[in-house]
């Protein structure tokens, strides 16, 4: 991989060390300057999906926007939707370098700050529904990130653990419902279950049992840690959930935020980017760095990580996103 390419990916908080499959292409995005106010070049990492999001058709579709309603659903009238993936901020066990897996520990102060920063980065990206794991650190990250969102909607957890919990958490005012974003929690998005390693220090374990063995448990696709899940096992439940629950929502026009974990997200990205078992070894997920995908025509196109809310280029990903940002600008303060 060319040095520039590697640096670009690193700058986006995205460590994909694979050097022969990641192609960086420069995409010239020429949008209506009157409508969008930007004409910029956007850099995207393309693996196997062709770029198809920027067509005159989608621009024409997007131009038919209602003026009063600020919901992202009505703003994005093309068939395009966005998927934002976000690993939780630093947890108290990340800080201590302990194998965490399904142990349910909260964020550190640094993790809270990372979630705020992530929220700023996605504050102009539409979010209609939030999916999160059933673990506190992912839920905290989603809730904290949404405090920064310019739509000012309130995330509200749908409690689906029993019929009673579902009924008792219902919102009955239509106005309040419109101003809220449903949060759907699912164990299938949880971190891989780390088995007998949960609670042990990663470095000490590597020193005791051998670096190669521990690296194989942590990063390879097929090797399960003792009594725990391999990435493959984690992938079977996380990707099945993604295909059965998350993809249909994107297809139905919803823009989604998914907050989850290093290995459930590695599984999902492996599926989205069609990585091989070899390639996924080098896929590292940083805490609190959002990654944006555009979903159009049944294809996922990775668009990188939004850098900052002030960065004009962020809004030049697609015309629909630029319009959504423009509508947010018009919202009363
Ligand atoms: O401990 C864990 O649960 C995970 C993520 O922090 O560790 P790893 O770096 O091995 O994926």
From TrEMBL:
Signal sequence residues: none
Give, as one word, the top-level EC class. Answer: isomerase
Keywords from UniProt, A to Z, are: Glycolysis, Isomerase
PROSITE patterns from the xrefs? PG_MUTASE (PS00175)
Q: Give one GO term, molecular function aspect.
A: phosphoglycerate mutase activity
Xref: InterPro entries? His_Pase_superF_clade-1, His_PPase_superfam, PG/BPGM_mutase_AS, Phosphogly_mut1
Q: Does the keyword Acetylation apply?
A: no
This protein's source sits in the domain of life called: Eukaryota
Question: Which residues are annotated as active site?
Answer: 88 (tele-phosphohistidine intermediate), 191 (proton donor/acceptor)
Q: Does the keyword Metal-binding apply?
A: no
Name the site position(s) for Transition state stabilizer: 261
Q: Where does substrate bind?
A: 87-94, 100-101, 137, 191-194, 202, 218-219
User: CDD domains, from UniProt?
Assistant: HP_PGM_like
Entry's Gene Ontology BP terms: glycolytic process
| SUPFAM superfamilies xrefs | Phosphoglycerate mutase-like (SSF53254)
E.C. no: 5.4.2.11
Q: What's this protein's family per the entry?
A: Belongs to the phosphoglycerate mutase family. BPG-dependent PGAM subfamily.
Looking up PANTHER family in the UniProt record yields:
PHOSPHOGLYCERATE MUTASE (PTHR11931)
Q: What is this protein called?
A: phosphoglycerate mutase (2,3-diphosphoglycerate-dependent)
What is the organism field in this record?
A: Asparagus officinalis
């Amino acid at each position: 991989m060319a040095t520039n390419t590697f640096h670009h990916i690193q700058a986006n908080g995205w460590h994909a060390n694979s050097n022969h499959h990641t192609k960086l292409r420069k995409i010239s995005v020429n949008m209506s300057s009157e409508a969008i106010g930007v004409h910029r070049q956007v850099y995207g990492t393309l693996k196997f999906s062709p770029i198809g999001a920027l067509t005159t058709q989608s621009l024409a579709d997007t131009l038919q926007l209602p003026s009063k309603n600020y919901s992202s659903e009505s703003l994005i009238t093309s068939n395009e939707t966005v998927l934002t993936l976000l690993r939780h901020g630093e947890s108290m066990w990340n800080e201590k370098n302990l194998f965490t897996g399904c142990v349910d520990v909260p964020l550190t102060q640094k993790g809270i700050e990372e979630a705020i920063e992530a929220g700023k980065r996605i504050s102009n990206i539409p979010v209609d529904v939030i999916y999160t794991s059933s673990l506190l650190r992912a839920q905290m990250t989603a809730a904290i990130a949404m405090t920064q969102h310019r739509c000012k909607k309130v995330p509200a957890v749908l409690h689906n653990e029993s019929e009673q919990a579902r009924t008792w958490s219902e919102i009955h005012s239509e106005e309040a419902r419109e101003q809220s974003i449903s949060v759907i929690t699912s164990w299938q998005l949880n971190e891989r279950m780390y088995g007998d390693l949960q609670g042990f220090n990663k470095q000490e374990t590597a020193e005791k049992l051998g670096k190669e063995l521990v690296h194989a448990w942590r990063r390879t696709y097929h090797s399960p840690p003792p009594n725990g899940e391999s990435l493959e096992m984690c992938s079977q439940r996380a990707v099945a959930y993604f295909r059965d629950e998350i993809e249909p929502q994107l297809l139905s026009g919803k823009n989604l935020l998914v907050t989850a974990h290093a290995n459930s997200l590695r599984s999902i990205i492996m599926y989205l980017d069609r990585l091989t078992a070899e390639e996924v070894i080098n896929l590292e997920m940083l805490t609190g760095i959002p990654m944006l995908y555009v979903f159009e025509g049944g294809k996922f196109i990775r668009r990188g990580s939004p850098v900052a809310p002030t960065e004009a280029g962020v809004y030049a990903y697609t015309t629909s996103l630029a319009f959504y940002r423009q509508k947010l600008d018009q919202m009363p303060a």
